[in-house]
Amino acid sequence: xxxxxxxxxxxxxxxxxxxxxxxxxxxxxxxxxxxxxxxxxxxxxxxxxxxxxxxxxxxxxxxxxxxxxxxxxxxxxxxxxxxxxxxxxxxxxxxxxxxxxxxxxxxxxxxxxxxxxxxxxxxxxxxxxxxxxxxxxxxxxxxxxxxxxxxxxxxxxxxxxxxxxxxxxxxxxxxxxxxxxxxxxxxxxxxxxxxxxxxxxxxxxxxxxxxxxxxxxxxxxxxxxxxxxxxxxxxxxxxxxxxxxxxxxxxxxxxxxxxxxxxxxxxxxxxxxxxxxxxxxxxxxxxxxxxxxxxxxxxxxxxxxxxxx
Amino acid sequence: xxxxxxxxxxxxxxxxxxxxxxxxxxxxxxxxxxxxxxxxxxxxxxxxxxxxxxxxxxxxxxxxxxxxxxxxxxxxxxxxxxxxxxxxxxxxxxxxxxxxxxxxxxxxxxxxxxxxxxxxxxxxxxxxxxxxxxxxxxxxxxxxxxxxxxxxxxxxxxxxxxxxxxxxxxxxxxxxxxxxxxxxxxxxxxxxxxxxxxxxxxxxxxxxxxxxxxxxxxxxxxxxxxxxxxxxxxxxxxxxxxxxxxxxxxxxxxxxxxxxxxxxxxxxxxxxxxxxxxxxxxxxxxxxxxxxxxxxxxxxxxxxxxxxxxxxxxxxxxxxxxxxxxxxxxxxxxxxxxxxxxxxxxxxxxxxxxxxxxxxxxxxxxxxxxxxxxxxxxxxxxxxxxxxxxxxxxxxxxxxxxxxxxxxxxxxxxxxxxxxxxxxxx
Lengths: 309, 426
Hints:
heterodimer; A: mainly alpha; two-stranded antiparallel sheet; 12 helices; B: mainly alpha
């Protein structure tokens, strides 16, 4: 169950990477920070509601919906802003240039949030207020039980994923996104406003990241400006695992990676006689990344990416 | 008498260096004075001077004036040593990123390898997993010099080991994989306290042996009695300076050799380079190994200087810091890397810290501006703690406004930097 929760989380973040990569062929390094900002938006709203005493009377499910939507909105807009400021001026430059700028954005955002939160709350390790209703456990038999919030996280992720799938495959907007991903020049000749579509892609990808951030906070309770880094890298691994640029691939990759990691965390020490324990689960994810990149760079579901010098 | 008259230029440069030295000597606590001295070193680079004059001034300033000032105020010596270490790191990364065009985001891993190499064997730590039959640990300080060479070797081998599996990857994937590699090394350092206690985990290793003061009897013979407190900073300063000089020479030689040209060919167009007969695999591995070896030797010196290391010294932040230095100075440019490393290190160690201290003074002074009592200035607002933000801003601004860096490589200066790539149409 932990693996599933983790997997959906990775899938949500991986979508941001994969969509941006699909249209721009850019690894949006700042995406992990977009995710982190989403988490902070959630906790800020909860803490503010709590401060004015509104938190307890409200239905926790309504609150959850509210903070997920708010996190999506803020993260999405932030992603658009980042694209406008740090990536758009560099479009057409050698591909390492925007990547370096993206790393810069990532570092900048980490410290910007840290500065903001230290000024505002005098602390930047924030804790989500807990809801009794979410922590209740549902028991299935003797040994299997899980908390309500895991179910909620999974349900919310599924909802968002299906909405995205519908948006990309069934709407005109989705068609435009796919066209831009396919060939920017031709798409613009067909009357598609490429810049607007790219902004929209960042908006959607960022919103996914924001939703993941809020859900992450609800699930694991704490958040700090540096939380984004490791899940970000792992979600990128998931995106590569599923075939980068491929939307269903990112979902599958996220789930597979989440499950693998949960298994590794619980069984690694069992298999190696206690020599290597759960602390190596990060290395485990990186090894998967390296193996995939070497042996099957197009990922599980990916198509062949053409070579560009 | 024009500005370009050699006599005038020489007089000006000399005056600047001498003047700033006197200034630092007179007000040793003023950061501004020390920065004037540092800036005067720029005067050696920019004006039209003959190579010999330049060398003389550099030798004078770095070999004589800096040690004297550093003994006057110990903190400056520390700054100078740090600058030297980062210059070597930046030059190493410059080979990988600047010349060969392989973006390495885990560069600090090689630094860690070097540092842990000496830390483990130069402290009682090695005794915890090596049987006593192989000798007693810590090794005697004299081994330090062998470990300098070993650091180069082991780091280079690590570089090749990392390079082998990832060479086929395209630039951006390579960046992520090297980032992962850097994290792997850090996680290993953090967790290898079991099943065998090699790195002592997050607690780190201490005390680490310092190199022997082999020249002390000599000094005594001349009649100089100096305490270790004065000698060690000087010693490390000259050690670092010597390594930096060697690194610069190696870099220059490499850049103008067929190897350097092959790297640049790979950077510009891998496929074309291969078609021209450049052995891609060997050249890329060589770039990784060369870059790594500089970090390795500096790691050994770093651990000997610090006496204590733990995994926290080798985070992703450090890798990006070194990258920011290379980018700021100019990718592929040797003077650029030196300049970038100096500027960023001085910014971190002096300017930001200076501003923090100044803000602190303001807080305590009880001044009120526009009805706002400065004592209420939040104490979290401390620029020295926001390295990440500084690095981030450097990276973004440089990429947008001046991707070729402050001192662009000569080759880049000749060609238009933008639009050399046939990349995506916009």
